[in-house]
Amino acid sequence: DRHPMWTFDGRSILFDSFDGKSREIWMVNVADGRLTQLTRLGGLASFPSPSPDGKEFTFFFYKDDIMNLWKARIDGGDVKPLTKGLASAQDNQCTFACHVAAWAPDSQIIAYSGGDHESIWAMRRDGTDPTKVIGDDTHSHFPWFFGDGQMGYITEHVSSTDAYTDARAYDFKTGKTIMLYERMAIQGPFEWSNDGKRVLFHSPRSGNFQIYMINLGDAEGIATLRGTPVPAQPAQPATN
Question: Which end of the chain, N or C, is more open, meaning fewer C-beta atoms within 10 Å of its C-beta?
Answer without folding.
Answer: C
